[in-house]
Structure formats: C-alpha cells, structure tokens
Specification:
Helices cover 6% and strands 58% of the residues. The longest helix is centred in the N-terminal third of the chain and has 5 residues. The chain is mostly beta strands and 158 residues long. The chain has one domain: Lipocalin (Beta Barrel). Strands 2-3-4-5-6-7-8-9-10-11 form a ten-stranded antiparallel β-barrel.
Length: 158
C-alpha cells in the first residue's frame, strides 16, 4: 500500500465515489465569497467579508467545506448522507477552533432549502441558485424563541 503524499491528498477527493449521491451539498463545490452579518442581542449588526470553499472528501463518501472570516473564525464541516438516520438525511459536524465550538446536525432538504437542525441551533441554506445562495444561523433562546445570529450572502468565484 502506497502512502499518500499529503494530508490534502488523503482527505480530499476528486468527486463522489460510485453509488454515493453527494448532490445535496456537492452542488456547492467550488470557491465562494460571502458577506457575513452577525446580529447581537441588542440589535446591532456587524458585516464582514469572508470566503467559503466546498469539495469532496473521505474517499468520495462525504463533502467538506471551510469557511473563513478573517480575524474571527476558520471553520470546517464534514457532511455525509446517512440512510440509517432516514431517507435523504445527512450527518454534519462543524468545528470552529477560533471560537472553540463544535456543532453536530442532521440535515435534510425541505422544499427549496437545506435545513440543518441540532438541538439549540438551526442552520439553513436558502435562495439557492447556480452562482448564489443565502445562509442563516438561528439559536434557541432560554425562553424557547429563536434568535437570528448570522446571515450570509454568498456568491461563487471563478
């Protein structure tokens, strides 16, 4: 068995492996720019420019993405379909070392959206077009209501 020459070669894949449908998140493969609006509980908003890169990983059985908000966060997700969790259900794990956070989700397509639910967080991809989409991050508050924490306006590069 030959050792792969780098972590990137061992982790990333050229595409999905035969028989694995990675289309739900695979549609985002490539590089994107984003404007991230972060909403504070007091109603103030900060907008930062960032980037998001999507690809295939783990022998073509998963997708991965890295989003970068310079000076704030450099996070990575690994996502894969899991038919044992239900038809069309994906598992997703996000790691953000800058803010020392990890989140796990179950993701499904709901109408024209992709919804990732995980306890007290809900992440949603929406307004998905070929070269643009939007994303939101909502958090459940102690009183049970949901509060919008972030939105991304995202557009494809290259």
């Amino acid at each position: 068995m030959a050792i792969r020459p780098s972590l990137a070669a061992a982790f990333l894949a050229a595409g999905p492996t035969d028989g694995v449908d990675l289309g739900l998140f695979g549609q985002f493969t490539g590089s994107w720019l984003l404007d991230c609006a972060e909403y504070d509980p007091d109603g103030s908003c900060t907008v930062r420019r960032g980037e998001w890169h999507f690809g295939y990983a783990l022998g073509g059985r998963a997708t991965t993405d890295v989003w970068i908000l310079p000076g704030v966060e450099h996070g990575v997700s690994v996502r894969f379909p899991d038919p044992t969790a239900g038809a069309g259900v994906w598992r997703s794990t996000w790691v953000g070392p800058g803010r020392r956070r990890t989140h796990t989700f179950l993701a499904t397509a709901v109408d024209a959206r992709i919804v990732l639910g995980g306890g007290d967080l809900c992440w949603t991809f929406f307004d998905i077009e070929g070269d643009t989409f939007r994303w939101s991050n909502e958090a459940r508050q102690p009183d049970g209501r949901w509060r919008l924490q972030q939105t991304f306006r995202v557009w494809r590069q290259g």
